[in-house]
Design the sequence.
């Protein structure tokens, strides 16, 4: 998002309309094919947010993908933000789970809101154990995941009527566009499913 456009959408603090209180960024960015937001850009958005008295949250569902691809530690990506969420069930391989990080007071308030909204969980130790395995083993395999995505993109480029939108992929996502084809999309989906390959259109 352009910094000027972000600033122009920030509502003034008046009694007539709700004030803007949060800016959210996503890194890596899902709908952009797993593209990585540069650290310098995140810092500029953070500076803008602080100058306006607004908090910055990073949706870091795949932040470890961004870190492995760039060599920048997750802690550096998180530093400009007031809060950050990351997922252990996507690239890291746990069956379920996301973690929220922030200051002690922020987490205390988040825990209260989670309980108020019915988001509590019993016997969570089994899932926590899977999360530990994700941290210990999953991060080290992300580079392999990225390489597999690049190999997939390279192979798909050789298929007629396919275009790779994010060529080459920065992380673990390959986005493909079908050019006009005499074959109906449903037929393509069914043929791929017969080979145990699932896609979404």
Sequence:
């Amino acid at each position: 998002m352009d910094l000027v456009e972000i600033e122009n959408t920030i509502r003034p603090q008046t009694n007539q309309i709700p004030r803007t209180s949060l800016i959210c960024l996503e890194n890596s960015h899902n709908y952009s094919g797993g593209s990585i937001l540069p650290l310098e850009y995140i810092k500029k958005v953070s500076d803008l947010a602080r100058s306006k008295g607004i908090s910055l949250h990073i949706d870091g569902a795949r932040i470890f993908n961004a870190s492995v691809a760039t060599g920048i530690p997750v802690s550096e990506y998180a530093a400009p933000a007031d809060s950050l969420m990351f997922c252990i069930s996507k690239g890291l391989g746990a069956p379920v789970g996301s973690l929220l990080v922030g200051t002690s007071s922020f987490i205390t308030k988040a825990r209260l809101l989670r309980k108020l909204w019915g988001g509590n969980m019993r016997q969570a130790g089994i899932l926590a154990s899977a999360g530990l395995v994700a941290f210990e083993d999953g991060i080290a395999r992300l580079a392999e995941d990225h390489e597999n995505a690049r190999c997939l993109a390279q192979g798909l480029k050789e298929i007629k009527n396919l275009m790779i939108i994010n060529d080459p992929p920065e992380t673990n996502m390959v986005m493909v566009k079908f050019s006009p084809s005499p074959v109906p999309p449903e037929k393509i989906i069914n043929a791929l499913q017969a080979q145990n390959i699932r896609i979404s259109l």
